[in-house]
Amino acid sequence: MADGGAVAVGVSGGGGSCSGRSSAAPAKYERIVTLFSPEGRIRQLDYACNAVKLAGTTSVGVRGADCVYVVTHRKEDKLQDKTAISHLFAITERMGLLATGMPADGRALAHEARNAAAEFRFQWGYEMPPRMLAQWIADRAQIHTQHAKIRPYGVVSMIFGIDEEEGTPQLFTCDPAGQFFGHKATGAGLKEKEVINFLEERMKSNPSLSSESTFELVKCALEHVLWGDFYTQEYEIGVISKEDPTVRLFSEKFVRGQS
Questions:
Q1: Which PANTHER family does UniProt cross-reference here (predicted)?
Q2: For residue 202, which of 219, 181, 188, 227 has the smallest C-alpha distance?
Q3: pLDDT of residue 3
Q4: How far is CA 77 from the centre of its chain?
Q5: Is 87 exposed, middle or buried (0-12, 13-18, 19+ CB in 10 A)?
Q6: Which DSSP letter does residue 166 get?
Q7: Under 8 Å between Cβ of 97 and 119
Q8: Phi-psi region of 125 (alpha: psi -120 to 50; beta: other; left: phi over 0)
Q9: Helical spans, DSSP H, in 144-230
C-alpha cells in the first residue's frame, strides 16, 4: 500500500504502461517497425536478427590475399530437392551473394540485387563494384525500418567479389538494420559469435592468406563450431579469385582427412 491507502500499480511487461489495460496487450512498438521502445530499440529489427539465427544455418566468409571464400551448410531434408533452394547467388560474373537467414527473403533480395547491378552497368558502362552493391543493399534495408507496412529482411547478406578498378578481392556484410561492413573474415547465422571469436584468434597476426590457406581457414572455423556434425553436412561454397575473376558456386561434403 502506498501512502493514503492507494494501491501501487505495477508496470506491465509488454509495453511498460502504467494504465489499467491488460498486461497481455502488446505495445505498439512491439508490432510497428517505425516506433522506438523505451530502451531506444526497434523491436522488429531485433526480431529480424533473431529470424536470421532461427533458420539454423551458420555461414563463414574469409578474404585472402587474392581470393574470397564463403561457405554455409544446408539444412538436412531427405525429401527436398536440393537444387530447389540455395543460399548462394551469382549477382554478376564478378560478384556473388550469400544470404544467411530466411531463404525466401534471400532469394528476393538477390533478385533485386541483380536488377540493381544490371541497371548500374547499363547506366555507367562498367560492372558494379562489391562496395557499391553492399551500400545499395544496406540503403534498401534501412528504408525498411522507416515504413510501417513493410518489415525488415530476415537475412544477413555477404557480398563477395573482385573490384574491377582496384583488382582486389572484397568481402562485405549487410544486416537487417541497414549497416554494412567490410571484412577480412566474418561469420553469420546461428553460431555467429563462436565463428567470429575463432576467426579473430586466427587473424590476429594479420596473415596474408593464399587461396589454399583461405579455404582451410573457412573449413576450420565451421568444424570448430559444428563439432561432430561437421562431416555429416552438405555445404554450399562460393569462391572468386584474381586469377579467375568469375564467381564459382558449388556444393560438396567434406571428408575426414581431406585437404
A1: PROTEASOME SUBUNIT ALPHA/BETA
A2: 219
A3: 45
A4: 22
A5: buried
A6: T
A7: no
A8: left
A9: 192-202, 211-226
The confidence score (pLDDT) of residue 26 equals: 65
Question: What residues in the chain have per-residue pLDDT under 50?
Answer: 1-24
Q: What is the DSSP letter of 92?
A: E
Residue with cell 587474392: 66
What gap in Å lies between CA 203 and CA 220, rounded to an integer? 13
Task: Yes or no: say if 233 and 71 are a contact pair by the CB < 8 Å rule.
Answer: no
Residue 5's SS3 state is helix
Query: What's the pLDDT score for residue 253?
Result: 87
Element holding 149 (H helix, E strand): none
Residue with cell 556484410: 173
Query: What's the rounded Cα separation, in Å, for the pair 45 and 41?
Result: 8
Please check whether residue 161 is in contact with residue 68, taking contact to mean a CB–CB distance below 8 angstroms. Answer: yes
- 57-115 pLDDT, tens digit per residue, is 999 999 999 999 999 998 777 787 877 889 999 999 999 999 999 999 999 999 999 99
pLDDT (0 to 100) of residue 258: 63
What phi-psi label fits residue 189: left (phi over 0), alpha (psi between -120 and 50 degrees) or beta? left
